[in-house]
Amino acid sequence: MAFFRVEKLVKQFGGLTAVNEVTFEVEKGEIFGLIGPNGSGKTTTFNMISGTYPPTSGKVFFKGREIQGRKANRICHLGIGRTFQVVRPLGRMTVLDNVIAAAFSRENTMRGARAHAEKTIAFCGLEPVSGVLAKSLPIAGRKRLEIARAMATRPELLLLDETAAGLNPTESLEAVELIRKIRENGTTIVIIEHIMRVIMSISDRIHAINFGQTIAEGTPSEVAANPQVIEAYLGTDYA
Amino acid sequence: MKKNAVPLVLLAVLAVFPLVVTSDYFLHLMILFLLWVVIGSSWNVLAGYTGQVSFGHAAFFGVGAYTAGLLFQHLQISPWWGMALGGFVAALIGLPFGAICFPLRGAYFALASLALGEGIRHIATISESFTGGMMGIMIMPSFVSKTPYYYIALGLAALSVLSIQLVIRTKPGYYFVSIREDQDAAESLGIDTTLYKNASLALSSFWTGMAGAFYMNYMGFVDPHVVFSLHDYSVMAILVAIVGGVGTIYGPAVGAFIMVAVQEFFRSGFFGAFDYLGRVTGSSSFASLSEVVRQAHVLGFGILVVVVILFLPNGIVGDWEKIRRNVFRIQPTR
Amino acid sequence: MDVFLQTVVAGFLKGGLYALIGIGMTLIMGVMGIINLAHGQLMMLAMYITFLLNTMGVDPYLSLFVAMPALFLLGVVIQKFLLNPLIKVETILPENQVLMTVGIGMVITEVARFLFKSDYKYIKTDYANATFFLGKISFSVALTIAFAFALVFTAAMFWFLLKTDLGRSIRATAQDKDAATLMGVHTGRITVITFGLGAALVAAAGSLLAPVYYIFPDLGGPFTAKAFIITILGGLGSTVGAILGGVTLGLAESLGATYLGMEYEDIVGLAIFIAVLLFLPGGFKRLTKV
Lengths: 239, 334, 290
Description:
Largest interface: B-C, 42 and 39 residues
Distance between the termini of chain B: 27 Å
Distance between the termini of chain C: 35 Å
Number of strands of chain C: 2
Structural class of chain C: mainly alpha
Largest sheet of chain C: 2 strands, antiparallel
Order of helices and strands of chain B: HHHHHHEHHHHEHHHHHHHH
Strand order of the largest sheet of chain B: 1-2
Number of helices of chain B: 18
Shape of chain C: globular
Number of strands of chain B: 2
Structural class of chain B: mainly alpha
Radius of gyration of chain B: 21 Å
Helix content of chain B: over 70%
Strand content of chain C: under 5%
Radius of gyration of chain C: 19 Å
Oligomer: heterotrimer
Helix content of chain C: over 70%
């Protein structure tokens, strides 16, 4: 049984089928990439996995258990964390408080939560801004905070939604480093990304979708060479 | 512990207040102030910290008051038992309200809470056999002197603020604020937002209900028009918290003091200044002016709402920097 | 059966008036996202204006044309100086606008009380209480005239919103303020005009209602309540919904008064409100998609 498996996921919004029978498996310890043009259904897939809304049909298996349809906070407790494509900082709380709030999902005391939060902040390189209000952070800091928050919930599987979008090349490199560090720390990762340089360099395997349907799966070089993928992007963008 | 130094000193001052000031008039005002510390602080838990703005807290206040009164009227149980139960009954009312209305976001929730307050008021007015309808409930106050009431009110105020502080500075507090800032993000962090919103509501309605039960015992008379009043209780609670500083622990206490003072200022015609001037100058126009000011106290209130929202939307505690800069002309040091 | 038909007719006619109140409020809500809890108080002002003019011998249906522009101006002033500034303010609680309108409502009520005292005022006209008959059903002349005016104004609103540039700008702002700004719509001015329009519409309702209702400073509250029940019932921002909502409330109140008793009239509105929240959040708009 695979560590994480998505089976024939379908999501319909009224008459629109956003995700059409997407299936893939993720091995423990992998970095699994999900690519596709805008509107192809990637974030919708994430939303179904993380419990934002239930799938119209299909199943999600995590460590052998069926988890589709459960509420978002339950999914978090089961060990799946996520970041959001459009970052959602808890604006009027400091970076530290943001992460403490997340840490409380695993710690019950103030002291325990604070300690865990501080460790996570150190791990993610956010100590310099630990006391800053989240809304004052620039985009790179906010994205990093998203990750730190998710990490504080001690996820075994982390869903990263476009962590590099909006970052300059230096910031992207730093983001990639952090993602690698997270995998080395033992967390399995599924990552959605537009910036080809990023996703091609860190993914072990990639799954490509377009119009809600799978069009390719394989190693980065296999997928990059796939004519359907190239066509979907109208010339792959190696930014 | 330095953080707690100022409030402790103030608490000590409040504790000895009746020994120094024995005038009934001032004791009454202080009791009102303490009552509003309770109501404002508890409203603040739900609205300031958890972001669910209630326009109907009068519902909980009135329910607490009626619990005390009805226990006496129908079962001849001392209304002090109502003090014990008033909070719980109010919290009980909160449960179905939360279940129905928490899925509503933002202003819809505010409106629904407004409807709650007005709805319960209507029900209390119509069910004459149960509540006495417009006639209200009258009971004999237990104490003649105001001092025991003062200390009970002080106890309520201290306990409520303390319990709120304990909750806010630990896990529930973090969860409340997370819900306020971004409910969906909060869910993704493992927070059961429904559970915590209801917990916040329970804490909030409990203390407001207790305040209501105290009110019944202190004033000896309630009717639907008085205790379920939108302007006198629901809106006043919002003002107290906003003027003092929403989302701070002691803001509502500051706001309570100011609002009670302002309210008395208007009600008494600028603290009897006009009456005094009238006596001194022998001119009767001052007396009529005083009368006008007294009548206009609701108008003054409305103007106050407008002014506070325009210029001090984060309250005295919240906008302290702004006040220092503009009123005291103190520039912030870098 | 006659009683039933009579009740329905009365409720329907009243509903036309309610529709006017509702359209004004839903316009304000839809465009600015402001819940105007002073809506009923604005109507009360219009009724007093009508009353004043009536003491000077002016027919209430003519004073419509004074009350409407007057309240339009007041609405513009309120939006420009008291509500627009709030949009930019950063506060913890976003409901400042609602609270501001509560304050405004209080001020309006007390000013009215100061000027006119709290006693009930009446407008006397010859035809105000007259009725005419269609078969065995009596129609109140005043309410029928009010209904006719309401129809005309509603039609005019529709034409205005659909056919004129200004109307289209308003609808654009209601759908997406930022996009509208980018397309050259002066949204600051639009919000101001919209509030004025909403106020003018509710002023019309006030002038039309004045001949058959009693006027006192505190009537603002109950009518504000009716206004937002209608708005919630119809769906925020939906003019068609407001019309349906207004008629529904009028009918429900009428039926409630006849079959349950006069004191239940307000409870009916509240029951509708709760029912909508529970069973049809989003109001009629969800059903009609308009």
